[in-house]
Predict the 3D structure of the following.
Amino acid sequence: MFTAEYSTNVALERPSDWEVIPHPDAELVVAAPLTKWMDEGGFRPNVAVTVFPFPGTVTQLSTVVMASLLTSLADPYLLAVDPVPQLEAVRRLEYLHRGSGGLIHCSQLLLFRNGLAASVTTSCAANQLTAYDEVLGAIALSAALKDPSNG
């Protein structure tokens, strides 16, 4: 069962057993239920949404986001950059990087509407991908920028 979550600019659906985690650098973060091995230093799969004004084009947004991840992450490895014309998302980036939980797999959807951009990033340890890929993808694909004219 999924539960709707709303922030100022974004709506998404999360599994009812996933938790909303307040984070100062994100508009919305939802995380998988804790398991014993996560308490012992394992990585907690999550979806983080950041929203920011962006006055440029979709191509410029993709370039800025890729440049940022390549310069800010430890040992990033870009796996794919794809347009996603059938969705509200304008680009999907997939990459790996080193993090506190070892090798981290991320998939990032970029949403863009009326000068507002959102980054919807799914993260899990690379060895968790087969267990979490489907649910992370469902959460990310449910994300949508709210229409500012509708409040």
User: Anything to note?
Assistant: The CA atoms of residues 23 and 34 lie 17 Å apart. The first strand starts at residue 2 and ends at 6. The chain has a mean pLDDT of 89.
